[in-house]
Each structure stands twice: as structure tokens, then as C-alpha cells.
Specification:
It is a single chain. The strands form 4 sheets. A 6-stranded parallel sheet has the order 7-8-9-10-11-12. Strands 3-5-6 form a 3-stranded parallel sheet. Strands 4-13-14 form a 3-stranded mixed sheet, with no helix packed on it. 46% of the residues are buried. Helix 2 (64-79) packs across helix 3 and helix 9 (251-263) packs across helix 10 (302-313). The chain has one domain (24-332): Alpha-Beta Barrel (TIM Barrel). It contains 11 helices and 14 strands. Helix content is 41%, strand content 16%. It has 335 residues and is an alpha/beta fold. The protein has helices at residues 2-15, 64-79, 97-107, 129-132, 135-148, 171-187, 198-210, 228-237, 251-263, 302-313, 318-332, and strands at 24-27, 30-33, 39-44, 47-48, 82-87, 110-112, 114-115, 159-163, 191-194, 218-221, 240-243, 270-272, 278-280, 289-291. The structure holds zinc ion.
């Protein structure tokens, strides 16, 4: 009888919000409470190197040039009310957690980095072990980053980043997703999958469902590559819809996609961002950097100058915008 009362008490406590388990986001400076991450851009880059896994080299030593160039942009972003930036640059495309940590300390902006491997673009960004090891072997490499930090830095990833092409997932892409599901089950980290089309995203969702893993652990990165109906369908299943290429040229289309989701009552599954960042022009050096040629002349800004004002004019409320930028990202990236 006593045992039954204790079990009942524990069950009632766990159902009470006061005793619900605290959720966190893993940033490059450590854990932050999920409800304290503030407004967040869900898909941006800082520095990337697109030369390919076969030749990419880390930047040794001095990063003062990159800091001088990029820190002012991060400080401006912070001034615009953004408190957290999800940095989506994968391993073998120039991921540099130590640089992100330095920029995070200097700007006081939370920055989140990732583990995983990017299989899009003809497998150009995959190391040899991606082809030879099985899903469990690959997952254990990512798990080591989650548990011990990335490459001796002690900096832990806050999500799993994958990349897929425009068709249903091929065998390598499916193996990466299987590895990501293994780690997501253990860590509760979300899986952000770059998808070239709705077909690729639906195929990832179906694999997740077959593996009995939660749809809310999947982020459809570049959901702008799909249709309104595909986005509404996957949002309805619980998948996060990341409309993350907002630019000076495309913001009106984004407003249309977002208003469609509002009509379907799906804004609570939406993430928005620019996919801005810089690319190095010389392998192994930060001395020459080019802003992405994605239609934004000032990085991380079109949301504030164009998209959000247009959405407000079209009837999206301030509290809906706050939900998208704060609650949704806090929810999506929490573990
Ligand atoms: Zn990106």
C-alpha cells in the first residue's frame, strides 16, 4: 500500500509543471536552460570552407582577422534582440568550435554547434569512414563528441546535422540518418537534415517513423525546397519546418509560405532563418572571407528589415513571432 502511494505521488509530481524535468540547450559555452535561450536564429553559419573533405584543412592559430570582421555583425544581431545563433556548419565544411566559443564569449551571444556528417553535394564532404563504417560505428564517433566534446576542445554539440540530396534518401544518406537516430535516442539531440526537396524530407520522416523515433526530433532544413502542402503535412506530423533562406530577394515568398502555415495553424512547428555566413577563399586561412552570395548584402538582417514587418502587416501577431523565434527554437533544440 505504501509503495503504491509513493508511486502515485511520484507520478503526480512528474505531471506537475513545477516538477517537470528541466530542459537544456547545449551551447559552445555549455548548457543553457531551454526557456532562457531567448530569441534564436535557427539556421545560420559563421565561417565555412567548401573545398571538400579530401583536402579541407583546419585553420591553425590566428583568428584575429575573422573576429575583427564577424564580431561586429554578431554584436549588431544581439542589439536586434537575438540571444542565440544555431551554427549549422558541419564537420569537414570548416566547423570550428573553438572559434565559435571565442565569438560567443566576445559577443555574449549563445552559439550552438553540431555533430554529424553532410552527405549532400555528391558526397564531397564525407570522409572515407562514412563509406566503410556501419551506422553504429558512425554513431559512436558522434556520441564521443556529445559526451567528451569535439576534438579535445571540450565543446559539445547541440544538435546532429545531416545533408541529403533531392530524391528519396540513398543508402549512405539513410545510414547517416540511422546513425543520427541512434544518437538522438541516447542524447535527445534533434536531427537537422538539409533536404533538397520535399521528397527527401518525407523519405527521412518515413525512416524516422519506421525506427519508432519521435517526429519532433527531426528538423526539415531548407523546407523552402518543398511545397506548401508538403510543409503542412510534415508539420502536422510533428516535424520542425525550417524556412531558412530568407533574403532580400526572396522574403516575399517566405511571407507567403509562413502565412500558409498560419492558415493551417502550424506556426508552432516553424523555424525561420537566413542561412547567412562567410566562406574562406584560401584553404587553411581566415585572411580572405567572402559573404555567401545568397541574396543578403548585410548578414543576419533581412528578417528584421523585411520579413517580420511584412508578416506583422499581414496579421501575424507579436506573440506568434515570439513563439517562432523563442519558444519553437527553445523547444526544438532542447534535450
Ligand atoms: Zn546552411
Amino acid at each position: 500500500m505504501l509503495a503504491r502511494s509513493i508511486i502515485f505521488l511520484l507520478l503526480s509530481l512528474s505531471a506537475c509543471p513545477l516538477f517537470a524535468q528541466q530542459k537544456y540547450i547545449m551551447t559552445v559555452r555549455g548548457k543553457v536552460k531551454a526557456d532562457a535561450i531567448g530569441r534564436t536564429l535557427a539556421h545560420e553559419h559563421i565561417v565555412t570552407n567548401f573545398i571538400g573533405a579530401a583536402t579541407v584543412v583546419d585553420v591553425p592559430g590566428d583568428d584575429s582577422v575573422v573576429i575583427a570582421k564577424i564580431l561586429p555583425q554578431l554584436l549588431r544581431l544581439k542589439g536586434q534582440g537575438i540571444n542565440t545563433l544555431i551554427e549549422c556548419t558541419p564537420n569537414f565544411i570548416g566547423r570550428n568550435p573553438a572559434l565559435l566559443k571565442k565569438l560567443s564569449e566576445l559577443s555574449d551571444l549563445n552559439i550552438v554547434t553540431n555533430t554529424g556528417l553532410y552527405s549532400a553535394v555528391d558526397k564531397k564532404y564525407l570522409p572515407p569512414y562514412a563509406f566503410t563504417e556501419n551506422a553504429a560505428g558512425i554513431a559512436s564517433r558522434w556520441e564521443a563528441e556529445w559526451t567528451n566534446g569535439i576534438g579535445g576542445t571540450g565543446i559539445r554539440p547541440g544538435f546532429i546535422k545531416l545533408g541529403a540530396g533531392s530524391s528519396a534518401l540513398d543508402s549512405i544518406e539513410a545510414k547517416m540518418l540511422a546513425a543520427a537516430i541512434l544518437l538522438s535516442r541516447k542524447s535527445l539531440l534533434p536531427i537537422a537534415i538539409h533536404s533538397g526537396s520535399g521528397q527527401a524530407a518525407i523519405s527521412a520522416f518515413e525512416q524516422l517513423k519506421k525506427s519508432n523515433w519521435k517526429p519532433e526530433k527531426l528538423i526539415w532544413v531548407h523546407a523552402q525546397n518543398g511545397t506548401d502542402e508538403e510543409r503542412a503535412m510534415l508539420a502536422n506530423e510533428g516535424v520542425w519546418i525550417s524556412l531558412d533562406g530568407v533574403s532580400e530577394k526572396s522574403w516575399e515568398q517566405y511571407a507567403g509560405m509562413i502565412l500558409f502555415l498560419k492558415k493551417r495553424n502550424m506556426l508552432h512547428r516553424l523555424l525561420i532563418s537566413h542561412d547567412d555566413g562567410w566562406a574562406v577563399l584560401e584553404n587553411g586561412s581566415y585572411n580572405k572571407l567572402d559573404l555567401f552570395e545568397n541574396g543578403n548584402s548585410i548578414p543576419y538582417s533581412t528578417l528584421f528589415t523585411k520579413l517580420l514587418p511584412a508578416l506583422k502587416k499581414a496579421g501575424v501577431t507579436e506573440s506568434e513571432i515570439d513563439m517562432i523565434l523563442r519558444n519553437n527554437t527553445g523547444d526544438c533544440f532542447s534535450f
